Amino acid sequence: MIHSSPARVALLVFTALILVWTALLSLPIASRAREVTPLADALFTAVSAICVTGLSTVDMATHWSLFGDLLILAGLQIGGIGVLTLASILGLTVTRRLGLRSRLLAAGDTNPMRMGRDVSESQAVGLGEIGGLLAAVATSLVVIELALTVFITPRLIAEGYDFWHALWNGFYLAASAFTNTGFVPLPGGLEPFATDTYLLSVLAVGVFLGSIGFPVIFALYRYVVGGGWRAHKRLGLHAKLTLTTTLLFVVFGWLAIAALEFNNTRTLGSQNLGDTLFSSVYMSVMTRSGGLGVMDPNDMNGSTLLVVDMLMFVGGGSASTAGGIKVTTIAVLFLAAYAEARGYKDMQAFDRRIPNEVLRVAVSVLIWGATIVLAASVAIMHLTGEPLDIVLFEVISAFGTCGLSTGLSGELDDPGKYILAATMWAGRVGTVTLAAAVAATSRSRMFRLPEERPIVG
């Protein structure tokens, strides 16, 4: 099955982990009150942790015991790395070698398009570079989270926490930021730090680094350490597209949120110009899938909610800890529209041609993602009777594994929680991986049907 369909292995392992975590979080030892956590809440938390979403139906600061918090931390680390990548790292650590099966597993985790088909990856991450990528994944996870912990802990000590509680909460926040989960272990959440430029800047950097993806971090590392132009000539197309599109969406979100909320006294209207600009750019970065918000979505204008919906639906980079349809997907779609408008036969970016196969995958991801969001929104609206803007925000946050919330998750009945959990699962697994798992392998026909073109547009 590893050779024929790595996607099915990913789905089986991923789903099995969620079931195991659900069982463990249901135990009395996992709750601070030493009571059995209801199945719907345990399942929702397990899915939210392993899918690195950050939505919750219980108070994360008071409900879970130390054992429960450790389970959640382990779950979000596994979900952030990717189950197949983690398996490959463990195999490499134990055996000191990386066989073909491990390379195929890791390659399928970093690029779902490899699953079931031959893909040229001369400008991304090939099988020969998987070992270096796995080392970069493990190193960046440890180094970045420890660095974030070092920066966060003193601020919590200054807030009145003793050293050990500050260290624990600092590491929890660091892991939550880098994995783009969005869980906050502090009583009252981040509300006491709503105008704390230092702490929020550290969290924003962690979220941004996690959202660009491990292949991009690996490419940047090779570019800087390897001597840049002398060693590798240039960054690959994937890295350039990811960084460029991510920065464009951050700037767009920054300007849009600031323009739409600057006169809203419930959000940014009561702040000075500097705080308004900082809060809006921080909120824009959190829509990459970070979820560590300091603005209540219920207080935002409807126009702002729609902008945030769009940003969350796009999400972060491919093979990252972020969710959504991914920035490279939307970049390819815009490049295709531009090529069509200019009359070009091929899509081009950064002096490279993008094959039409990538466009087909991008269109599929967009359609399946929109379908999942639509189906979940209709179901939850029918169950709850809540208005569209509130339900759509919560559903897109779940699908994009973002974690920003209007509070609807905690008010849902069990059927609604199961629907939202399934949405988080689909958003994290990825529509490409899900389709590859169903199809098992790509199929080729020995014939082609006669061509006839329908009218489009």
UniProtKB/TrEMBL annotation:
Transmembrane segments: 42-58, 70-94, 130-154, 166-186, 198-221, 241-260, 310-337, 358-383, 418-440
Gene Ontology terms: cellular component: plasma membrane
Lineage: Bacteria, Bacillati, Actinomycetota, Actinomycetes, Micrococcales
UniProt keyword Cell cycle present: no
Protein name as annotated: Potassium transporter Trk
Cited Pfam families: TrkH (PF02386)
Organism name: Leucobacter chromiiresistens
Keywords (A to Z) from UniProt: Cell membrane, Ion transport, Membrane, Transmembrane, Transmembrane helix, Transport
InterPro entries for the chain: Cat_transpt
MF terms in GO: monoatomic cation transmembrane transporter activity
Main localization category: membrane
